[in-house]
Here is the input.
Amino acid sequence: MTSEIFDRWLKALDKQLGQQHREIALLIDNYPAHSRDCGEKLKNFKVIFFPPSKLEPLDLGIIKNLKMHYRKRILKEMISAIEKNETVQENIDPRKAIAELYKVWKFDVTAKIICNFFKKGGFSNQTDDIDSDDEDVILTDLKEK
Here is the structure.
């Protein structure tokens, strides 16, 4: 998604809503391509931005957690190659990166982690503890390696 694509989509939606004689409020997250001035020239709907890190569980840590686990897997592979006196690849093949991200999402970013970040964002009234130690455990493990 780019800001140009997003702006074109908004204009097309505005035109469609005008033809249908409808008005709506569009709730938008804080993705960088969603520019703050995107709703200024629109006639048939109002753009409302979510407050940052209040209603966006992905921003609250799910993406950060995914990246940490991904880096951990890549670093473990590099360390293993060094220990075996093998050549360490400087660049990661895109297919390999996607395969590793798939493994991380499937095995490392658990449903519990995702639920906890949704809870942290206020999407649940349950009071289970959030695994804030997860990040520390990963970093400690990497430091030991």
Observations:
- Residues 70 and 103 are 9 Å apart (CA to CA).
- The two ends are 38 Å apart (CA to CA).
- The beta strands are 24-28, 45-49.
- Helices lie at 3-19, 57-83, 94-108, 111-120, 133-144.
